[in-house]
Specification:
Elements (H helix, E strand, L loop, with lengths): L23 H24 L1 H21 L5 H26 L3 H23 L10 H28 L3 H12 L1 H8 L4 H24 L11 H22 L22 H11 L2
Helix pairs in contact: 1-2, 1-3, 1-8, 1-9, 2-3, 3-5, 4-5, 5-6, 5-8, 6-8, 7-8, 8-9
């Protein structure tokens, strides 16, 4: 009997990375989404818990499906996915504490272990964790799974410092505002860019959420008393303006394919002509 090995099916590949270039506006929008996730979840929760769950879960699944089925990067589609992950991530991070009564510190430890496990799996499977190499469907699935866990971890850590440790929202802003400078300094000192990126990505969550809570919480709770509805609306306006700018200027579109090899799949390199035309083709 002759046993023939069946070659593994190649993963779907993309001409250029399906995530944006990382520059200052990337981090500004990321902070806006973290604040929106916190304020939006609080606001929807005051309106209707079932409505909040429907929007959080349903919106997350629909927008993520649209992002994963696309063959190219588009700022509106990408950042709506991040926003939906922020809202959904807030809900899943708060869920165990509200329903089961687990301390936020315990939740933080669980999310940290899950995140480290997923990153190790991603690294072992693909050989890289670089966000510049999201040029296959498999890597993109790893990417969004990691993003979801960073939001869950950041939410739990932020609540642990503000509530369980008693720092309050204002001092939490100071704490995470200082901590987020650490990966920036390490990056400038030559430490691995991928490591410092994901460290900063996690820290933006409690920083943005603390700002949103400080703006929306009552004076008695240590906030400015704007209300979660006002904070949500203001954040959406700023978010829409920033994403519209990117959609018009294409400032965040990769201009060439990643040079990182793709395991179990065809090469993703492109010709000089493809690289020259990538910016115009990537945004559809």
């Amino acid at each position: 009997m002759i046993v023939r090995s069946v070659p593994a099916m190649p993963t779907r590949t993309f001409r250029v990375s399906k995530v944006p270039e990382v520059f200052v506006l990337f981090w500004i929008i990321k902070l806006l989404t973290t604040g929106e996730g916190e304020a939006g979840a609080d606001f929807l929760g005051t309106v209707s818990i079932p409505l909040a769950a429907a929007i959080g879960i349903g919106g997350f699944l629909v927008v993520l499906w649209l992002q994963l089925r696309a063959d190219s990067y588009h700022p509106v589609r990408y950042w709506l996915t991040v926003l939906s992950v922020a809202l959904f991530g807030t809900m899943i991070a708060d869920g165990p504490h509200v329903v089961l009564g687990t301390p936020y510190a315990v939740d933080s430890g669980i999310y940290l272990l899950l995140l480290c496990g997923l990153l190790a799996w991603w690294r072992r499977s693909e050989g890289t964790l670089s966000v510049h190499s999201i040029t296959t469907a498999r890597r993109e699935r790893f990417y969004w799974g990691t993003v979801l866990l960073t939001f869950g971890l950041g939410t739990a850590v932020g609540d642990a410092t503000a509530i369980e440790m008693g720092l309050g929202f204002a001092w939490s802003i100071v704490l995470f505002g200082v901590l987020i400078l650490v990966p920036l300094g390490l990056w400038r000192a030559g430490v691995d860019a991928t490591l410092t990126f994901w460290a900063a990505y996690v820290l933006t969550r409690p920083l943005g959420a603390s700002v949103a809570d400080w703006l929306g919480a009552s004076h008695r709770a240590g906030g400015l008393g704007w209300g979660s509805g006002v904070v949500t609306g203001l954040g959406l306006v700023l978010f829409a303006a920033a994403v519209t700018y990117l959609a018009r200027t294409h400032r965040d579109v990769h201009t060439s394919a990643s040079t990182t090899s793709v395991r179990s799949g065809p090469a993703t390199g492109s010709s000089a002509t493809d690289s020259a035309n990538a910016r115009g083709r990537a945004v559809r």
